[in-house]
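ok so dumb question maybe but i'm new to this and my supervisor (M.) told me to 'just get the structure for Enoyl reductase (ER) domain-containing protein' and walked off. so i did the thing. is this what she meant?? sequence i used:
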Amino acid sequence: MFKALYLQDTPQFSCSLSSISLDELYREEGDTLVEVEYSTLNYKDALAITNQGKIARRFPMIPGIDLAGRVLESRSDAVKEGDRVFINGLGLGENHYGGLSERAYLRGESLLHLPENYSTFDVMAFGTAGYTAALSVARLLELGLMPEKGEILVSGATGGVGMVAIMLLSKLGFEVVALTSKIDQPQFFTQIGAQRVEDARPYYEAGRILQKGQYQGAIDVLGSQPLVNICAQIQYGGAVAACGLARGMDLPGSVAPFILRGVTLAGIDSVMAPRSARMRAWKLLSDNISGEEIRSQVEEISLTEAIPVAKKMIDGQIRGRYVVKIR
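this is what came out, is it supposed to look like this??
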């Protein structure tokens, strides 16, 4: 038996810390058993735990879109017993039992080995949020954005994606502007590398289809009207990496920035990104941000604390990243 957060929908939805048999776990598609050492608590996990979003595609389900740990047994050629491995996304916590669990049964080919300078805690300190930030930064670099061309705007700056994006862009020499409604916390943004802070609240309202071109690029986690306003403020030939929809999935705007300023809107998918993109993103992180730096920006909680913290996350009462110690 092993312990895990367990989502059920009969007779009504519930999330509890439960004891589950390995026999049930082995019914999942996989060839590799992992002893999970750490997971994370992302906003997506909080939605699943609180039943605020249709994250779990079937029930019962174990939430948790990230995990890192040690291989206990494997029939895969990709990993062997004793390897330290991790995984982000790929259906975990949605249609496959996820990482908020003492054990996980996965396909070895979907697992990545730890970067040499990171521990299992470190990769979970980044988690899907940090990895998504790295995917976004990598895409902007591919599109030709360079430090000497001007500022980069990062929305959702107190969240995991925004925080790591600011840290990474700053390390690469970019001038970063943090877009946030929490403008009373300037010291936090300065500490992680932002040059200045912009109030996000005006971005929630409709603006002109073309506004003053202030930024060479942006990373956006909000979507909806804020994304429209961000695109309207991008300089000629700039780019926006869109990786979230915290304010909504709609895009109530104009094509004007794209056809009159040549702005590129690049979508970022972290869930099913190919292995090559994942490895490139993690190399970008490991080359630029040390384990010590990211550890200082996260809080560790236990598996039993995940449910109450998830509720606070949904209510907007927390800032930053949470690593969940499983064992």
